[in-house]
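Aim 2 progress update. The chain analyzed this quarter is reproduced below.
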Amino acid sequence: MGISRVINRRTAVLGLLLMILAAAGFGFAASNTVEVSGAGDGAATITGYDITNVDYSLDPGSPTVIDEIQFDVAAQAGGPTTRPDSVVALLTTGGNDWYDCTSADVTSPFTFVCTGGSTTAAAADQLRVVAAN
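Predicted structure tokens:
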């Protein structure tokens, strides 16, 4: 009987120690708070726009300078149906004389008017339109 009391006492002390450690561990784990967050990964096709009905206007004060460009922008099949947020146009290969473009249209095709550039008609050799949604 003497040995069983020692074993029971050791078992009781060990059990009590394990309960104290478990309670302390649970207390630390319960105090952690992690904010809700999100993460993701995906891919989609980048579609372009169709540019049509291009029209150039010359500066009345300097008729060799293209003062304004106007064109319609419509999404290609499968593309966004909303008006592009950012549109700029360039008339020279390798140039840096960008025209800023704006549109008030709310339905496609969106008519954009581009101003602010100073490219001469003689220097114009391309129409490059960059549109992003």
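The mean pLDDT is 86. The chain is about 20% helix and 30% strand. These observations will guide the mutagenesis experiments scheduled for the next reporting period.
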